[in-house]
Amino acid sequence: DSGVTQTPKHLITATGQRVTLRCSPRSGDLSVYWYQQSLDQGLQFLIQYYNGEERAKGNILERFSAQQFPDLHSELNLSSLELGDSALYFCASSVGVAGVYGEQFFGPGTRLTVL
Amino acid sequence: AQSVTQLGSHVSVSEGALVLLRCNYSSSVPPYLFWYVQYPNQGLQLLLKYTTGATLVKGINGFEAEFKKSETSFHLTKPSAHMSDAAEYFCVLDASGGSYIPTFGRGTSLIVHP
After folding, report:
1. How many contacts (CB atoms, under 8 Å) link A and B?
2. pLDDT tens string for chain A (115 positions)?
3. Nearest-CA distance B22 → chain A (Å)
4. By the CB < 8 Å criterion, does A39 face chain B?
């Protein structure tokens, strides 16, 4: 158990809908990262937040947004969902800004299915 | 543009045999390189990383990798495979200058036969 929790574990929705994925980092971790894992695209880094501020951005679509709240939990919002958004979404956390010098701890993921 | 290529989507070895998972990268700046492992139905776990300094990096579970700049490679090895090593392995490149904006390889599935 990494100490990172993600809810829900599974999510099934329809095209055009909007969903919110939630992540609670390990106690004391200030950074949260979001990743998408799909059969088509493989693993992709989406975005990182550090202590409430956006820190780094990867291949995140404009239909997706994220935020980190004062209690350090994070939410990933996916809107106007398409079939291709079906994927496993991982959250990870690390102690500090981390960069390449820190270790990230991954949650178990949320499996999103868009029908 | 930065990229990372893992050679072989599947690698099959016998228990006790050498494990070699290949990774080549392309980067216009000094790279930072990582290997992650993903066990079935789990998130990723860091095996090892190269940032600067020693080019032979030792990680957890007996794995190691060597950064070879001339060959633009970062292959992962383990002298003796164990059944518990069966998993998906990802080579990851960060060419953002250390801010951690990673590019993942497509992954190599390691199959270990008894």
Report:
1. 54
2. 889 999 999 999 999 999 999 999 999 899 999 999 998 888 999 999 999 999 889 889 999 999 999 999 999 999 999 999 999 999 999 887 655 566 788 999 999 999 9
3. 17
4. no
